[in-house]
Specification:
There is one protein chain. The chain has helices at 17-29, 48-55, 73-80, 91-99, 105-112, 125-129, 131-142, 168-183, 216-227, 255-265, 308-315, 331-341, 383-402, and strands spanning 6-11, 33-38, 59-60, 83-89, 117-121, 146-147, 151-154, 160-164, 191-196, 201-204, 207-209, 231-236, 247-251, 271-274, 281-283, 302-304, 320-327, 346-351, 363-364, 366-370, 375-377, 381-382. It has 403 residues and is α/β, with parallel strands linked by helices. It has 2 domains: 6-182, Rossmann fold; 185-402, CoaB-like (Rossmann fold), CATH 3.40.50.10300. The strands form 6 sheets. Strands 13-12-9-14-17-18-20-21 form an 8-stranded mixed β-sheet, sandwiched between helices. Strands 3-2-1-4-5-6 form a 6-stranded parallel β-sheet, sandwiched between helices. A two-stranded antiparallel ribbon has the order 7-8. Strand 1, helix 1 and strand 2 (33-38) form a beta-alpha-beta unit. Helix 1 packs parallel to helix 2 (48-55). The longest helix has 20 residues, at 383-402. The chain is globular and about 70 Å long.
Length: 403
């Protein structure tokens, strides 16, 4: 899918700049044309001649170099590329992009690019989590800048945490996925509702009953549908995950709030994916003041929450409904029983006790269960890749139904 694609690679001044050489090499081997723009700081880590040799194209480092072609170079370059990628994307370049600063060749050309822009953040864990950086990331997310990573791991400063740049193999794979998905926008015009995260049932103003769901699976599903052209609404319980580009988010907290928002939007949806971990019960009484510790046993009376998936199964007409089941024993049997009982068209089940699966992880191990009794078992893979596989399965099933 990268054959003949023109890719602008912006390289900034971070230690991960050495990985960008491999990115260029991998892109060239897949047939892409790569045009490298380096900041002054980036040249302190890797020389321009390295990128020129690997890319077989001129390397841009300054607004005031002798022109390589007779045009306004930053505008010409911006207009001719299919995508732009900034890797590594330091906190500095992210701040420039968020505020519209254009004080060097790279920040200027990025302002002129009309094609999709990908960034692979790379910085110290503390810098990544600084409020200013997080605000800039949010601003860029709202402008449909696409993020690849960062990942968690050992960093050059000797610490370990978030902010490590994704590996070149993963970055190139993301670009391939983008071109693959935009070649066939099989969900274009379809309305999709996805639920995500773990609901919270308040006990008092400072405590709640909840679960370990991070929302990663649901957010990945929302992203995968948006990538293939769907109009996606994400009804999300509290989560720290950035909202995927092109996705409308509706923030809720409790199971009853999620029930209300989902049921209100259900009639106009084509597909509903219930990936949220919804609390089964809520307290009968929510205290208006903080409950003080008495040293005695505390008994809570709980009542069932409305069952969203069951209600959708009863009300569905043209909608395709996908349920999720997080199990700790007999996942396949329990999943099949749940799918039939709740009248869903498909169910994704996983054993949350397996290493690399379940809540809070970046990977999962799932099985797709189908209404005809068949199933498809997936190996351990990233939640985003599982989400993309799920979208493909749904598209195939819907097309067979129409036939």
């Amino acid at each position: 899918m990268l054959e003949g694609k023109r890719i602008l690679l912006g390289v900034t001044g971070g230690i991960a700049a050495y990985k960008s050489v491999e990115i260029v090499s991998r892109l060239r081997k897949k047939g892409a044309e790569v045009y490298v723009v380096m900041t002054k700081s980036a040249t302190e880590f890797v020389t321009p001649i390295t990128f020129r040799s690997i890319s077989a194209n001129p390397v841009y480092t300054s607004m005031f170099d002798e022109p390589k072609t007779w045009n306004i170079e930053h505008i010409s370059l911006a207009e001719q590329v299919d995508v732009a990628l900034v890797a590594p994307a330091t906190a500095n370049i992210l701040a420039k992009m968020a505020t519209g600063i254009a004080d060097d060749f790279l920040s200027t050309v990025l302002l002129a690019v009309k094609s999709p822009i990908f960034v692979a953040p790379a910085m110290n864990d503390a810098m990544y989590h600084h409020p200013a950086t997080q605000k800039n990331l949010g601003t860029l997310q709202e402008r449909d800048i696409r993020f690849i990573g960062p990942t968690k791991g050992f960093q050059a400063c000797g610490t370990e945490g978030d902010g490590r740049m994704s590996e070149p193999l993963d970055i190139v794979e993301e670009l391939e996925n983008y071109f693959t998905q935009h070649k066939t926008r099989e969900m274009s015009g379809k309305k999709v509702l996805v639920t995500a995260g773990g609901t919270r049932e308040p006990l008092d103003p400072v405590r709640y009953i909840g679960n370990f769901s991070s929302g990663k699976m649901g957010y990945a599903i929302a992203q995968a549908f948006a990538e293939v052209g769907a109009q996606v609404t994400l009804v999300s319980a509290p989560s720290e995950i950035a909202v995927p580009s092109g996705v409308e988010v509706v923030q809720i907290s409790t199971a009853e709030e999620m029930y209300s928002e989902v049921l209100q939007r259900f009639p106009e949806q084509d597909i509903v994916v219930k990936a949220a971990a919804v609390a089964d019960y809520r307290p009968v009484v929510r205290e208006t003041q903080k409950m003080k510790k008495s040293g005695q046993r505390l008994q809570l009376e709980l009542v069932p929450n409305p069952d969203i998936l069951t209600t959708l199964g009863q009300k569905k007409q043209h909608q395709f409904i996908v349920g999720f089941a997080a199990e700790t024993q007999n996942p396949l049997d329990n999943g099949l029983e749940k799918m039939k009982r709740k009248n869903s068209d498909m169910l994704v089940v996983n054993d949350v006790t397996l290493p690399g699966a379940g809540f809070g992880t970046d990977t999962n191990i799932v099985s797709f269960l189908f209404a005809n009794g068949s199933r498809r078992d997936l190996p351990k893979m990233s939640k985003l890749e599982i989400a993309r596989q799920l979208v493909k399965e749904i598209a195939n099933l819907r097309s067979k139904t129409k036939e």
